[in-house]
Amino acid sequence: MYNPSAKEVSIVDVPEMNFLMIDGEGDPNTSQEYHDSIEALFSVSYKVKFITKKRELAGLCGNAS
Question: Quick check: pTM over 0.70?
Answer without folding.
Answer: no
